[in-house]
Amino acid sequence: xxxxxxxxxxxxxxxxxxxRRKRAVDAxxxxxxxxxxxxxxxxxxxxRKADAHNKxxxxxxxRRVRQHNERLRRxxxxxxxxxxxxxxxxxxxxxxxxxxxxxxxxxxxxSSWTGHGDLVDLGEAETANSVxxxxxxxxxxxxxxxxxxQVAALRSTxxxxxxxxxxxxxxxxxxxxxxxxxxxxxxxxxxxxTSARELLTSLLETVAPDADxxxxxxxxxxxxxxxxxxxxxxxxxxxxxxxxxxxxEEFIETDLDNVVSLFAxxxxxxxxxxxxxxxxxxxxxxxxVEGAIQFVSRxxxxx
Length: 303
Prior knowledge:
Layout: H1 7-81, H2 89-110, H3 117-138, H4 148-155, H5 168-179, H6 188-207, H7 210-216, H8 230-241, H9 246-267, H10 279-300
Helix pairs in contact: 1-3, 2-3, 2-9, 3-9, 3-10, 5-6, 6-8, 6-9, 6-10, 9-10
């Protein structure tokens, strides 16, 4: 039933309805202002935390870079101070790697790489490790008695799940190679070098299988025997993680050649007594291989 109103009553109703609507609009606007203020606080808090996090990340990155730079300078200075310098095949390999890293740094500085900055940092660590290994080879062997805790440290590793994430067998083989390391074991270096070389080869074949490499590039580089080459596997990993960079591919190839050259140097049996290597030399080769494994693992992982 429609209620009849006088003009006075209608005008009063309109005023009341307008007041009610105004109160509703005012309440809505108040809620919107509160919500906006809350969102602004949330965004400001998020941005503050993000800025603090980014500053910590940048500071930590710069700290690691400074450490790598200082370590490389220290190892090179130690190498230059050694007299006389006994030239070896590995000595030439280290020089080549240092030159390759200089070219890698120059290429990274001149371009806008977005996916490989971490590999440049690791490349400097690889270069420092190679010079440290050469310094250990050129130094005089130690004859101090080896303590149990030193052997335990020699057989320990900073490699966590890097290998296990690709293949459980790779991790087991690395642990087995480490177990062979002992200064009193005349076969320690040969056993470790053989196992480590096979491990690095298997790691690359696992992270870049033939089928994947050939599917991505049927005309990829091959070995003289016709199989997929190491360089092709490296390029496949770089393409997958952020794009191909010639200077980086060349450094990785040179770095792996350097590790292989170190294996040859140790297996030549030109150091130590009756094939034995002291703690310093065994530690140097262990750290060199350990770093190379981490480097290859990072190459194979997303940027």
